[in-house]
Design goal:
The chain has one domain: Tetracycline Repressor, domain 2. Helix content is 77%, strand content 0%. It has 15 helices and no strands. α7 runs antiparallel to α8 and α10 packs antiparallel against α14. The two termini are 24 Å apart.
């Protein structure tokens, strides 16, 4: 039973699950900032569950559709390739998770159901069709993250979908994950990344600046902005600590090094989400959402020792 559980944990990229709650939570705070209203905390937990269920379904389908390619590439550590989990079992699990997410979304509201359905469609489209396209695939993956943010926005205040804070938050997550996905392409082969890796810290700095400007237009407090900047420094420090410089200096990165870089970049989503929540949510956002997300970071780092992230 323990071995089976470990196989499922590898299949769904368990360390990356810690990066998922921050997307819809960021959407809640951005929407609340846009309206100046209070957070609908009663909807937060169930919305996080919806997004995590869709994320897991997407991860499972990703390996289902890639089974032949992974077999040819010799990825014997993948649960489907090794036979630890059968293809039928994986498809059934993805179906159950998807149906569960849509049912819960429908119980919240019709708008949340539509948002969840769109997010699921984006995930399936990436897994089945766009993943192997040079630009469409990374953009599609970015839209999945942006869609998760907008699902939180829809649960909080759907009328703010086109507001400055919500578009900055959703667009910011979309762009960051697009860049990470571009770096992840060809992770099964050794290759040189060079200074392209430095695009991520630079993008983060620009995103936080845009969020500060957007938040200030909607009355964000100086304290929240200051907290966001502090967490921004944490993000950049985290990225450098995880070894960005050694990747820049290395001539060619083998697949294991690329996986480490991609996993670190994905885990950096956690402090980035916390920084944006602090900007939009002020001190209350920092004390609630920001702190909660930061506490997920050591857990994600612990899980990465046992399960791969990409």
């Amino acid at each position: 039973m323990q071995a089976k559980s470990a196989s499922w944990a590898r299949l769904v990229r368990l360390p990356n699950l810690m990066t998922v709650p921050g997307d819809p939570l960021l959407g809640f705070f951005a929407a609340a900032a846009a309206t100046g209203g209070t957070m609908l905390w009663g909807r937060v937990p169930i919305t996080l569950v919806i997004v995590m269920a869709i994320y897991w379904a997407g991860m499972i389908l990703n390996d289902c559709f890639d089974l032949t390619q992974d077999w040819r590439a010799g990825c014997r550590d993948r649960p489907l390739v090794s036979g630890e989990i059968t293809l039928d079992q994986a498809y059934v699990a993805a179906l159950i998770l998807s149906a569960f997410a849509l049912l819960i979304a429908w119980l919240i509201s019709g708008a949340v159901f539509v948002a969840a359905l769109i997010l699921l469609a984006l995930a399936v489209t990436y897994d089945r069709f766009s993943k192997h396209h040079a630009m469409l695939g990374p953009f599609n993956m970015g839209l999945c993250r942006g869609g998760a943010v907008l699902l939180g926005v829809t649960a909080q205040a759907p009328e703010t979908l086109l507001s400055g804070p919500t578009l900055t938050a959703a667009g910011g997550m979309t762009g960051y994950v697009l860049l990470v996905t571009l770096l992840a392409r060809g992770e099964k082969q050794a290759r040189r990344l060079g200074r392209k890796v430095l695009l991520l810290p630079g993008y983060v700095a620009v995103l936080i600046l845009a969020s500060v400007i957007s938040g200030s237009l909607f009355g964000s407090h100086i304290a929240g902005t200051a907290a966001g900047i502090v967490i921004l420094l944490t993000v950049l420090t985290f990225m450098l600590y995880q070894g960005v410089e050694q990747y820049v200096q290395a001539a060619v990165q083998p697949p294991r090094v690329l996986r480490r870089l991609i996993g670190s970049s994905l885990r950096a989503l956690i402090p980035l989400q916390a920084a944006l929540i602090s900007v939009f949510g002020g001190l209350s956002g920092t004390a609630t959402g920001g702190v909660m997300l930061i506490l997920l970071l050591p857990l994600s780092n612990h899980l990465k020792r046992y399960f791969y992230s990409s």
